[in-house]
């Protein structure tokens, strides 16, 4: 959350006098002084910072019935814990609008606690984002126990306001005219059909399933920060799950099998569950939105230009231009 040689065609090698483009990177590595965080990221800034979570991603570029270069997809496998079959976890889903099985089995076996691969991988291999090459992104946040107050302002809005002032003062500036033309093309692109997004949120905080659904809804807040409008044709799915055990031991599952039966099916029993008070989870909501915002930016930063079906090419976000413009305001 993310091969045939013909799926991606490299650009012409630069001459010795041509500047080398910066390598693909996450947004905070590109813009060192950019502060997106009210909450501290985890050590890997990845879903695998949540204890127990294991992830495997795989890009798929070959299909026996498809011409070379026309298949760009993949699969992501996320496990709440290694022994997921016998140790269940709570989860819930929120719908905002809206591969072979062997790949999944392979992913379960290879899932690890390492930082999750980003960019052109998993189910996001062939995806777009804001008419640029999109892909998989990841981030994590550590929510402190004590209360803290945070304030901030959206950088994007400040930049657009400044660009408007510059254009009024310099209406014939060729760079500003080119930028205005680009914005006009972006405005026209809004009439195109929206795509879809799937976001998975993992937490160690003991949340009731209803609270997990509320947490999943906050993913849309993070998407809105980076320009998602939630138009009618778009299909957006958010899933939140926890890795914490909510009982003194664990949530008992798989106690009735063909080999054994460790529970009386006709004698109702109870579980003692402890979970976070729903009135005290604002910090979890805010950290979820913050992490999702960075996930989208990281996906854009890590994705690479790709050529696919019918030689259609999707260009990656030009990080050198992003850095050039952003350094004026940071």
From TrEMBL:
Pfam families: Peptidase_S58 (PF03576)
UniProt feature, compositional bias: Low complexity: 1-18
Chain segments carrying region Disordered: 1-23
The organism's place on the tree of life at top rank: Eukaryota
Molecular function GO labels: aminopeptidase activity
InterPro entries per the UniProt record, alphabetical: ArgJ-like_dom_sf (IPR016117), Peptidase_S58_DmpA (IPR005321)
Entry-linked PANTHER family: BLR5678 PROTEIN, D-AMINOPEPTIDASE
Family designation: Belongs to the peptidase S58 family.
Designated name of the protein: DmpA/ArgJ-like protein
